[in-house]
Every structure is written in C-alpha cells, then in structure tokens.
C-alpha cells in the first residue's frame, strides 16, 4: 500500500522516502543479525560459564571453550597452547579439527603463530598462513589459510595461546572474531584458574571460615573433598555424635551413613580405649592429633591398624563445635613392615653367616698366601740355580760352537785333500786312457768315470743323497746321467737296465723333487743344484 501511494506522488518525494525505508530496513536486518549473533555469543558464553561450574577436568573445560568459540566463528579448527611452569616451550594440549593431529606440537617464543603471540603478548591475525613469513617449516601446516591467536595472559605472565584457523582460502577472520576469541580466552583463564584452585581446595577451605556466606560456599567444596578422599573421614559434634561419614568410611568399616548418623560409632576395641581417651583429651585442649596409630573395628569384627589425624573446627565466635577425624587404613603397611622386619632379621642372620664364612675364607687365604710366599722363596732359589745352570750351558754351547767350527774346518780340509788326491792320483791316468785307443763304449765309460769322480767331490751328489731328498743310489746314478744330457735309451744301455726301469726312476726323482705334474725340465732343475 505504501509503495502504491508513493508511485502516485508527482514531485518525486515518495521515491526518496522509499530509499530511506529500504536503508532503514537493511539497517534493521543488520541490527537483527548482529543482535542474533550477539545473542548466540552471549548464550555460548553463558552455557560455557555454566560448564565451568559442573566440570572439574581442565582438558574437558578447555575443549568445551574451544569448541564453542570455533562454532561462533564458523570454523571447525582450533587449538590451545599451554605453558607449564618451568618449561621453555609451549605445547598444544587441546586441539580440534585439523589440530587434533598436531597435539604435542611445541614452539619457542617467536616460532610460528603460537610463538609470535607468546612473544608479543598481543592478538595476531594472519590472512594466509601459507604465505606468511613467520610460519613454521612443517609442510603438514600448508593446509592452513586464515589464522588468529589470542594470548592467555593472567597478570604479567602468558599461560598459553588460544587460536582458530581456516583451511578454506575464502574463509577469513575479522576483528569481531578476535573480540569473541578474547572473551573465550578469559573463560579459558577462568578454567585454568579453577584447575589450580581445585588442587588447593584444602587451603582455600581453611581461609574461608570468616563469614557465613564464605562458610556456606566452602561447605559444598568441603563436602566434595571429603567424598572424593580415599581415606575414611568422620565429622563429630562436641558430644561425640557422628554428623557425617564419607563413602570411604562406609567402604572401609562397613557402617552406612544412615546407621551412624547422630550416634556414637562403636568401633573402638576395648584395648584401644585408654590411648583413644588420652588423644581425645589432648584434642580438646587444642592440640592437633597427627598420624596417631591405633586400632579400629569393622562392622564384621575385623581389627584394622589405622593412623588417625584429628582437629577441632569452630564457629564464627571461635567456639569449638566439633572435630574432624581422618583415618587411614595401614593394615597392609603393618603387615608389610612385619614381613620386612622378618626379612631384615633373616638378612642379618645371612650376613652373620656370610661374615663367618668370609672370616674362614680370609684365614684360608692367609694360609695360602703364606704357602705362596714359601713357594716363591723356593722358586727364587730355583731361579738362582737355573741361572747358574744357564750360565754353564752357555759356556758349554760356546765350546760346542768352537768344536763344530773346527769340525767344519776339518771337513773342508778333508774335501780339499780328497780333491787334490783325485786330481794328482786318478785324473792323470784317466787322461791317458782317453788318449789311448779305446772303443766308443770304453770311451763313454771312461767319461762317465771322470764325471762321477767330479760329482763325488761336488755338492750335487751331496745334495741328492742328503736327508732332505733321500735319493737311492740308483736314483742318484740316473739323476747324474740326466744332468749329463743322456737320453733314456743311453742311460739304459750304460746302466744295463730296461728303458721302462729308467722311466720309473725318473718318475720317482720328479716326485722327490716335487716336480710331479709340473711343466719343468728335469735336467734344467738338476743343473740348478750345481750353483
């Protein structure tokens, strides 16, 4: 209806009015979208804040915070670096999407996105991580594009870095995402602070007893602590009536909380009452009972060894209103101590036995050492005697060397005399025979006699007949004729033997000279012995 009326206006003003309406409508839609995003953002913050109340596990809290921040920013990929006290590197301890495979990644100040944010202590937005100069060299990170990081800073110290990333090139983060991530970073710090507070809950409970409001808050934490304690705990009023027992007490002693509430717990053995009364009196006088060892009964009558720690708790006016008793079952420890003592006693007995054995061994060693000393003394005397004998043998050896040298000289002189006699007494007659009229066979025999005489006085025959070669007389004759260049036929005729016999002796000669199956001329080898 409005648009139809504007078209009928003659002066153009309705068209201007229509444009203004469109702009206002567009602004309204943007405002609605912004309000919707703001509502989603506040809802996520509210739900995450409620999650901090219900959850105690640090990693679960951080995962929930990171998941909601990523969902608001339209991504599935996020990470949280944490810096542990005393460490020089931050480590990814929480990751989603792409960063689930990067858990455990460590960076130093100035390395990559996490290290840069840690170093600068300021938010950092990178449009394209793939081309960013400060990127890590790990090739598996090439999938990342737009990346944003916020420091988890508490006081003057950075505890970690929370960040989001996109693996799509067209997905970019903006200042609004930094603001959203900054608020979730505050929640992450709250989660970390809560984790630290949970570890120090006992200390906090002691400090928050000043006002009723603080007391009521502490009572819930105190109850959680008591119920999660592995040690049995009983809370008494000043009349000795039980007002609370934790699950560990029920499990250890078998009494249910309903059966003992408002009553005295009858679990003190008769023999333990005197020491128990003394402990109660000391506690009422303001003394703390710490690790007091005694015994208590279970519902089924079993006796347990326990350590008891107890202290009074007071109201706002400082008046004692009851006491808390913490019991620790040390029955197993006592049994172990008893076994350990038995083992210790046995060990002492073994040590005593071993000491006696060692003493006996030492005495034996002393005797052996004394015997060895006597043996060494006898050995030294024997060495002196052996040295004297050695000296005597050296003198005898010297004398033998002189005699051997003399024998060699005599042998040489004898050889020279034989040679001289042969040349003077035999050689002239052989020459006369050669010059006389002899047949061919006779001349050959004379030549052989002359050659044999030369061989007799030469080293050749001596070598062949030596112990090394062990030639027979016939083998020496054959070897000598081979050396003279005679054929097998000629040797057979001269020695009046068959040709096969000569071949047999040649075979034995080659075997003894180690020439068997070798292509070596026998005559050439025999001639080498004259050198």
User: What is the structural class?
Assistant: alpha+beta
According to CATH, what is the topology of the domain at 43-199?
Answer: Beta-Lactamase
Following the backbone from N to C, one meets helices and strands in this order, namely HHHEEEHEEEHHHEEHHHEEEHHHHHHHH
Biggest sheet, open or closed, and with what strands and sense? 6 strands, antiparallel
CATH first level of the domain at 43-199: Alpha Beta
Q: Give the overall shape.
A: elongated
Note the beta-strand portion.
5-15%
Name the strands of the widest sheet in spatial order. Answer: 3-2-1-6-5-4
What share of the residues lie within helices?
Answer: 55-70%
Total strand count, please?
A: 11
CATH architecture of the domain at 43-199: 2-Layer Sandwich
Task: Enumerate how many helices there are, as a single number.
Answer: 18
Q: Could you name the CATH homologous superfamily of the domain at 43-199?
A: GAF domain
Mean pLDDT: 80
Radius of gyration: 59 Å
Low-confidence stretches: 1-9
Distance between the termini: 145 Å
Entry keywords:
alpha+beta, five-stranded antiparallel sheet, Beta-Lactamase, six-stranded antiparallel sheet
Structure overview:
The chain has 18 helices and eleven strands. It has 531 residues and is of the alpha+beta class. The termini are far apart.
Brief summary:
Helix content is 59%, strand content 14%.
List the helices and strands and how they pair.
Layout (H helix, E strand, L loop, with lengths): L1 H7 L4 H42 L3 H15 L4 E6 L7 E7 L9 E2 L4 H9 L3 E3 L20 E8 L2 E9 L9 H25 L1 H7 L4 H17 L4 E5 L4 E4 L1 H7 L3 H4 L12 H12 L4 E9 L5 E12 L5 E10 L1 H95 L1 H9 L4 H17 L2 H6 L8 H11 L4 H8 L3 H14 L9 H6 L4
Antiparallel strand pairs: 1-2, 1-6, 2-3, 4-5, 5-6, 7-8, 7-11, 9-10, 10-11
Helix pairs in contact: 1-2, 2-3, 2-5, 3-5, 6-7, 12-13, 15-17, 16-17
């Amino acid at each position: 209806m409005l648009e139809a009326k504007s078209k009928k206006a003659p002066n153009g003003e309705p068209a201007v009015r229509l444009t203004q309406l469109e702009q206002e409508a567009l602004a309204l839609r943007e405002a609605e979208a912004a309000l919707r995003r703001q509502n989603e953002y506040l809802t996520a913050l509210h739900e995450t804040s409620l999650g901090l109340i219900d959850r105690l596990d640090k990693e679960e809290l951080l995962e929930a915070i990171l998941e909601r921040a990523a969902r608001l920013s339209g991504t599935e990929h996020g990470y949280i670096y944490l810096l542990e006290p005393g460490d020089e590197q931050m480590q990814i301890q929480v990751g989603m999407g792409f960063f689930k495979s990067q858990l455990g990644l460590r960076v130093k100040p100035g390395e990559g996105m996490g290290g840069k944010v840690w170093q600068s202590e300021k938010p950092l937005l990178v449009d394209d991580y793939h081309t960013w100069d400060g990127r890590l060299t790990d090739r598996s990170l090439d999938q990342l594009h737009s990346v944003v990081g916020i420091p988890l800073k508490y006081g003057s110290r950075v505890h970690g870095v929370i960040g989001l990333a996109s693996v799509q090139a067209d997905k970019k983060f903006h200042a609004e995402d930094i603001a959203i991530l900054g608020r979730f970073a505050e929640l992450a710090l709250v989660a970390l602070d809560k984790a630290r507070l949970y570890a120090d809950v006992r200390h906090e409970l002691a400090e928050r007893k000043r006002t009723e409001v603080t007391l009521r808050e502490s009572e819930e934490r105190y109850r959680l602590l008591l119920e999660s304690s592995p040690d049995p705990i009983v809370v008494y009023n000043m009349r000795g009536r039980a007002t609370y027992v934790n699950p560990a007490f029920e499990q250890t002693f078998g009494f249910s909380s309903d059966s003992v509430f408002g009553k005295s717990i009858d679990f003190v053995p008769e023999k333990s009452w005197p020491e128990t009364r003394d402990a109660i009196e000391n506690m009422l006088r303001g003394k703390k009972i710490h690790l007091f060892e005694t015994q208590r009964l279970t519902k089924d009558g079993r006796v347990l060894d326990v350590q008891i720690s107890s202290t009074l708790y007071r109201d706002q006016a400082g008046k004692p209103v009851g006491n808390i008793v913490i019991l620790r079952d040390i029955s197993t420890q006592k049994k172990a101590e008893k076994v350990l003592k038995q083992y210790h006693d046995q060990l002492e007995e073994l040590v005593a036995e071993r000491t006696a054995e060692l003493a006996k061994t030492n005495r034996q060693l002393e005797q052996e050492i004394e015997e060895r000393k006597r043996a060494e003394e006898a050995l030294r005397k024997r060495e002196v005697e052996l040295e004297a004998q050695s000296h005597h043998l050296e003198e005898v050896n010297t004398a033998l060397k002189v005699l051997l040298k003399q024998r060699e000289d005599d042998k040489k002189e004898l050889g020279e005399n034989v040679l001289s006699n042969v040349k003077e007494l035999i050689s002239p007659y052989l020459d006369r025979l050669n010059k006389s009229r002899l047949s061919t066979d006779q001349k050959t025999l004379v030549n052989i006699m002359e050659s044999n005489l030369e061989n007799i006085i030469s080293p050749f025959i001596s070598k062949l007949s030596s112990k090394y070669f062990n030639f027979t007389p016939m083998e020496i004759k054959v070897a000598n004729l081979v050396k003279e260049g005679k054929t097998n036929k000629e040797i057979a005729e001269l020695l009046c033997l068959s040709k096969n016999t000569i071949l047999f002796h040649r075979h034995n000669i080659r075997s003894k000279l180690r020439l068997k199956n070798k292509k070596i001329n026998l005559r050439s080898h025999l001639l080498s012995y004259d050198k």
